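Here comes a specimen:
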Amino acid sequence: MTKRIYVDNAATTKVAPEVVEAMLPYFTENFGNPSSIYAEGREAKKAIERAREQVATAIGADPKEIYFTGSGSEADNWALRSTAKALSSKGNHIITSAVEHHAILHTCQDLEKQGYEVTYLPVDKYGMVSPEDVKAAIKDTTILISIMFANNEIGTIMPIAEIGEIAKNAGIVFHTDAVQAVGNVHIDVNEMNIDMLSLTAHKFHGPKGSGALFVRNGVRLISFITGGAQERMRRAGTENVPGIVGLGKAIELATANIDQKQKKLTALRDAYIKKVLETIPYSHLNGHPTKRLPGNANISFEFIEGEGMLLSLDMKGISASSGSACTSGSLDPSHVLLAIGLKHEEAHGSLRVSFGEDNTMEDVNYIADSLKEIVERLRMMSPLYEEMLKNK
């Protein structure tokens, strides 16, 4: 094949042409500092507020509840650290899950060193958190519940509305890392009783280095970066105007055609899963079969290593992933796959394919056919596979 096939959209997406076009003037013509009172500054400030409205509209929030950040990880850190500090007089207990992104897990581990108590809830075989487990974990000292909207590795969508209702009834702040969900599924922060929500532009065809944190009116937010008076005195530093403009345009585009996008990606995902599971023995799907992100397909292949698969796919012009992009340099098996009950060797043999709007059914067939050939070849070199055949 002459073209490369990119199916790692969960790691990052290509910036949409309309987004690039919207951003360009803020590098050259409208380059002013938003804190300046002259015309160029006022134009930049106006662009930021327009983007704030676009983000708010996309998730059913008020523009005053949107704060821009440099990434989803920063938004996660801000949400957890700010809430922990602001409510420390009320308690020190935080509830999260065992399958969160490391931006949540590592932050929680750091808070534990500072004297906070963290409950890491288990998940079922599909990677789903039980609302009943959330309710049972609540203590008098619980000040925050943080459960991701959808898992970045296996695509499982959590019962966010139910968890949000539990948190609301208990009077506890509820945060969700919605980095993978925004632009892929419908989100309404009011209907779902979400108090804080993290997102980042580069997951829905916006620029890297631009994220946002939704904070419900009434939830106390402590400054994360001190200095200037930007972001209503909550996050100092001259704003990344082109990035913020790009985020606003990208989220507007992503939510405008979300139903059409879901339909297309779900069809590609399901066709890929069906063909792979039917044609490659000793393979199984990770994550919930239906309650999953439309473009996500995570499959484990027994008796082989994921790295060998990735390199072989790359040679065939296919860009995929063995899990989270943030931990791709690690030799340790995925904490998410271990949490759903996979053995170390099964976790090491996993492949995440995340489809985008540019992908086609032709891509699906080419990837599945290539995988069949690659897996067969790698298994022929596997002592584990050889041993299995002998004992069969």
Notes: The longest helix spans residues 258-279. The chain has a mean pLDDT of 95. The chain has 14 helices and twelve strands.
